[in-house]
Amino acid sequence: MKKFRFRLEKMLQLKGHVEKEKQKILGQATQKVMDQEKALEEINWRRRNLHDAQRQILLGRINSQALSAYSRYYLRLRKDELSGNELLKVYRSDQAKKRDELVEATKQKKIYEKLKEHKKEAYYKEYSRLTQKAQDELASQMLQHKKSSRANRELPDNRT
């Protein structure tokens, strides 16, 4: 009997390739989310430093120009934080979408893997059945040969 060959092997390989590509895309989306979170942490760090610097200024003489500059910088940081949070939301939704696509690609690959398993199992069952049939046939032939050889040995003895 021929060796097992899955007819949809190329399709399975293609599904595996698609899954790997989706994993790469998800990895890139996750990296964007992580980078944006890091940028937001950096903004928060700057804001804390700004608060500390303003406290130091308020201990001494009050400089209205410095306070005005800090205020403008604080507003810019706040604006950057708000836009960063919006961008983070977009990146997270994109990441979730990419994750769903990866899950779907993985499901498609698993379908073909299961199909391959079932086909392989059916192949081996059929192979086992044919092997058993051949063994049974051989045993039957050996039994017939034994019976006929006994009958042939008995015939000459009866004639005498």
Structure description:
There is one protein chain. With 160 residues, the protein is mainly α. The protein has one domain (10-159): Orthogonal Bundle (Helix Hairpins). It is 92% helix and 0% strand. It is built from two helices and no strands. It has helices at residues 9-59, 64-159. Helix 1 packs antiparallel against helix 2 (64-159). The longest helix is centred in the last third of the chain and has 96 residues, at 64-159. It is rod-shaped. The mean pLDDT is 89.
**What is the CATH third-level topology name?**
Helix Hairpins
At CATH level 2, the architecture is Orthogonal Bundle
Q: Give the C-alpha Rg.
A: 39 Å
Distance between the termini: 51 Å
Tally of strands: 0
Q: Ranges with pLDDT <50 over ≥5 residues? A: none
The helix tally amounts to: 2
User: What's the CATH C level?
Assistant: Mainly Alpha
Please provide the ordered H/E string of secondary-structure elements. HH
- Categorize the overall geometry: rod-shaped
- What integer is the average pLDDT? 89
- Main β-sheet description: none
Structural domains: how many: 1
Q: What share of residues are in beta strands?
A: under 5%
**Category from helices, strands and their pairing:** mainly alpha
Estimated helix fraction: over 70%
Provide the descriptors you would attach to this structure in a database record:
single chain; about 160 residues; mainly alpha; Helix Hairpins
